[in-house]
Amino acid sequence: MSIDDTKTAFFQAPQPEGESDDPRILVVGGPLAGRVFCLTDDSMSIGRREGNDIILRTAAVSKHHATLRKAAHCQYQITDEGSRNGILLNDLRLSPHETADLANGDTINMAEHVLFFSVPCGRSTGVDLSDFGIDRKAVALEVESLGELLNELSSYRRGK
Prior knowledge:
Oligomer: single chain
Strand order of the largest sheet: 2-1-11-10-7-8
Distance between the termini: 27 Å
Shape: globular
Number of helices: 2
Mean pLDDT: 78
Low-confidence stretches: 13-18, 123-129
Structural class: alpha+beta
Largest sheet: 6 strands, antiparallel
Order of helices and strands: HEEEEEEEEEEEH
């Protein structure tokens, strides 16, 4: 399964019972590859300094790089907080202090960190993946394996 297939399956897979409908950030590149952050507050900060909700410890990430905000039910935005090295949202650079809407599956780049944005919101896509022969548990294992592989690659790169 390719990274794009795994990403698609991750975002479309029905959520296991008991888990929240909070949006998530899946880190797929950089030192934190494999980590998943649930966005539990209406506003969460990203930066390299302690006190941010998501801490990306890289010199190229500003002390307070970005803010994720809930705009409405199942609608979120990202704001570049005047960062020095900027944010790429789906390969488009945000201007300093620019706010952009986020959609399920968006890619966010901050320095070497690559993040995928997911909004479960009850997984209300109306699609049952089992209708397509996709096993939820297999998808979860693929995502976990992808995270482990990305961690190994990050470790390997740091060792060079």
